[in-house]
């Protein structure tokens, strides 16, 4: 009888342990998605997490490493302590300093439980043998030891400490925005050494040519005039008609990360962003204050721009720029210069590279025109679009287009 009871206890303990392990892996899967790990560590969609993707910086390219369970080229042989040290302190398995293209400066806030859950999930990712390419940083930025000095100025170690004066929802949002989601890494301007400008936190920045939006509650340049349901829709689908559409890196963030967040976590994110200090942008104007629906006129002074628009854009966005049920309107739209600054960078990059934003709601697709149009033609087309449908101050020349094309 005792033997049977002992066997039953062993079986129950084993089943409970297996269930707990699966729960931990499931939590890790969610956290890895929320942390945007897929975004940077996947160069080939057929080999997720195998690394090799270049992260563009002003100092050269940093290549994201292989974080599959491969023991030789991935992190399969890493200990939990080595994984946690890399995530929290920016120090690799062999003691090498990691570059802040990897957001350890934000991940330092993560809890032990969350890091170990992420580690547990990554241990289940099928191993892929893939050697990470060498970084192509210019001297002296290729000297890893200098990161110790950089960290003294730009890195504050420490776990997230909840603010007892705030709600649980606010604290969860702060943990997601400042830590796991590391929103400030893209949406905060950087100084000449690549450190975040703390006084302009979340005020928008340029990332690999793209203009990342102002996430502060400023009503003109930021999200202050957005309703909660518009922000919720943008984060879960990448589309907030009348406000903005997720493009470039943000489209990837939506596709691989934010669309998978629970409604509670999305609401917590929004609740926290509502409370950060608003930062205005000089000469910013409300989107509704410029642009209009206007029929294409190929006989006008902008005849070359009108012709290019009619041939390449009108079939989807309409002859008046108002779009339709499926395709977005260009009138008063963020991509046409309503991102708080009079810039047409995002518009040019969208024309060059197109859009590919798969979500559970819809798969947004737009063809790339880099191979079809010259730099001069893209400049003419972009200026036509912003002059007629967006902010007429947002202009660009062929030289800048060529730079963005690279």
From TrEMBL:
Q: Which GO terms describe its cellular component?
A: plasma membrane
Q: Residue limits of the Cytochrome c domain?
A: 23-126, 168-277, 300-389
Report the leader peptide range: 1-21
* Residue numbers binding heme c 2: 183, 186-187
Superkingdom of origin: Bacteria
One example GO MF annotation: heme binding
Cofactor binding comment, as recorded = Binds 3 heme c groups covalently per subunit.
Entries under Pfam families matching the protein: Cytochrom_C, Cytochrome_CBB3
Q: Which Gene3D superfamilies match?
A: Cytochrome c-like domain
**Coiled-coil residues:** none
**What's the cofactor?**
heme c
Q: Which UniProt keywords apply?
A: Cell membrane, Heme, Iron, Membrane, Metal-binding, Repeat, Signal
**Any idea which positions bind heme c 1?**
37, 40-41
| Major place of residence | membrane
Q: Which InterPro entries match?
A: Cyt_c-like_dom (IPR009056), Cyt_c-like_dom_sf (IPR036909), Cytochrome_c-type_DH (IPR051459), Membr-bd_ADH_cyt_c (IPR014353)
Say yes or no: keyword Metal-binding present: yes
Q: Where in the cell is it found?
A: Cell membrane
Q: Where on this chain does heme c 3 bind? A: 313, 316-317
Q: Which PANTHER family match?
A: ALCOHOL DEHYDROGENASE CYTOCHROME C SUBUNIT (PTHR35008:SF8), BLL4482 PROTEIN-RELATED (PTHR35008)
The name under which this protein is listed is Cytochrome c, class I
Source organism of the structure: Caballeronia temeraria
